[in-house]
Protein 1
Amino acid sequence: MAVRLAHKMAIESDLVRADMVEAIEFPHLAVKYHVHGVPKTVVNETFFIEGAMPEVLFVQQIVKAVK
Amino acid sequence: MPAPIIPAKEREHIQKFFEEKLVNPVRLVMFTQEFECEYCAETRQLVEEIAQLSPKITAEIYNFVTDKPQAEKYQVDKIPAIALIGQKDYGIRFYGIPSGYEFSTLLEDIVDVSQGESGLSEASKKALATLTKPVHIQVFVTPT
């Protein structure tokens, strides 16, 4: 769900790029971003969302975080 | 020949799904390397199998080590990687194999990219229209 949403945001805005990252295959990144549960969303290295969230909230939190 | 990843029954279902929904061509640009890690080989096979399910989908396989210009063009910094490219590069990437729940994500993303439409609500579209700075989102998942 979170991956779908992030990818939809990338389609909608030219300013957004969005990656799915499989935590087990990239353990160094999971450690770097303190991924203890999934989904975990990392925005511009500085803002984090733990768990799943409804669309509007997810989008609004991210937009607010980068302003 | 390794056994197919997508079961025959599932293949038919996906074929129909693509036939109904796909509009513009989609390229699955995949990065691997010569001595493939386990997931690299599987991801490549998955991408190739998906490309067989619609004439509108093509698989492009690159070598992450020797095809550096391509890796840079698509801003790919680790493998296995898949970039979904439609009428343009929307910035959609999969790092690691999209399995389980994320396999459905990949199929649905292909449709969105092909249609060039996010399908987000008006409220979300409005919020995104206010962005002024680049946003890089990384969503960590585990196979389900």
Note: DSSP finds three helices and three strands in chain A.
Protein 2
Amino acid sequence: MKKGIIASSFFFAMYLFPALVSAHAFGQQYTLPLPFQFYAFGASCALIVSFVFLSLYSTPEKNPGSIISVRKTYVIRKWNAIEFILRTIGVFGLIATLAAAFVGPEDFTLNPAPELFWVILLLGFTYLSVFVDGLWPMVSPFETLARIFLAKNKEPLLRYPEWLGYIPATGIYFFLIWFELLSYGAGAEPSAVGEFLLGYALFSIIGAGLFGIEEWFAHGDFFTVFFGLIGLFAPVKIERGLMHLQPPAERLVLEQAGRMGLLIFVLFMLSSTAFDGLEETQIWWNTLYHSALQMQIYPIERILILLASPFIFFGLYAFAIWLMRLFTRTRLLFTTLAIRFAFSLVPIAIAYNFAHYFTLLVTGAQAIYQMASDPFSKGWDLFGTVHYQVNALLIDAKYVWYAQFASILLGHIIATYVAHRIALKVFPTRAQIIAGQLPMLLLMVFYTVFGLWILSQGYQTGA
Amino acid sequence: MNKAYITLVALVALVGLFVAFKYTTPAHSASLAAETAPQTKTFDLAVQNRKLVSGPSTLQVNQGDNVTINITVDEDEELHLHGYNLHIDLQKGIPSSLTFTATSSGNFPYELEHSSTEIGALQVQPR
């Protein structure tokens, strides 16, 4: 049975309530809660490292460079051919995913479409963007299709309205998290993934047709905004046939968010991952799913919590910025400071994402390796891998802990470094830098400890 | 204060904390199987109306342990342990058991396969 994607699965699920569908068949993870000593040690490290940064490197510099200052630009030869290949890969990837989604079986263990979308695209490309930025505008099949369909449209019909900002991209981001976590399994249905991709391609072409390709994809396209933010960390940036090398995280310091909407987007990167982690914990269930009344309102409540989550994170951030203004007695406006420091949160967002999801990439890549041989369940064995058994136990729980712990802590250290470099640019005196950095560092210590705390919580078992 | 001094104090504090957490945290013994020899662990579970009515929902074992799960259900079903991918058929009212060695560490939910009911999880602590 093929279910519709948005409305029908939502109401279908509401109707079935409270018979919650058994959790997490798709994207099942086998990680154990982080032991207390990791959490406690990580929390202390975060504090100590922050204060070392604060006390050691607080002298304003005329032209503060980064720790490593390499800046090189290379011309990529035969760029047109490479761009053509990248665009072909993107479009072919979309067509292959759609073919599997609509022709293959309605079962994510046999059909590679859900894994291709959630794991290869959304996780794989995120981790690639940590190292290389600027590939997505070429690989994006949505942009390539828009360019093909709109080749004759010279002028956009409308000017991209200022007030619209990042609302379309953020809206799609909310939708995707809902689709992944709250749609009662619709996100794991191959046909639903296919419908989303098809709908999204259409949405992109219409958006680009109305407002112009460049404008639309820069603000309206979730993928471009998301990978672009992650890519600000990358040491390599590819742009119009040039390859720029710079120290990692350098562009998080130099570039600015421009508007509050992008700050909310960054905060949602943090809060949606935190939401996903929290929702599996015993403490969450004990608090929100205890009485009969709570069970009644839970489906609505979790959607509201998800919607509110970036604003809760924003509240804390705003408080830190407010304290920063208070302590430094700066004349800079609240919004100016809030926007200026926004990108310092990106390393924490990357760390949260990696700590929560990297094991999915390990199992997902194996699953695709196996399913690619027979994507339509026709008894094929295209690559001779059809009998491959996915080894979900590939990584020992101990190494998962080390990786989670290291990524959260490293994310914190890099974020602290970025915030500190920004402070050097914003504030003229040593006293202001120290006073202004203190609330920011405490905020980051909080996000870091919170991230570790979520990972250390016991899971809710047996729904 | 000079920079070398601060760096030194910070390093000493970090190493000190590391040692303290590694060797004195009581949770250490609980969360890492450490040097204990593999044991045999048996769990008796009973399920009624697709709900666990007897036995723990989280089965705590250490890596290398021999695990036996005895389970009695009130309808014909199939037990599936994720990750290890073990299946056994369950017959109404007749106790069934699943025995295996917990070779891999992690958190592995188990469910009643036909009705897709998750009833608990096996947690294997690493060594």
Note: The CA atoms of residues 79 and 112 of chain B lie 5 Å apart.
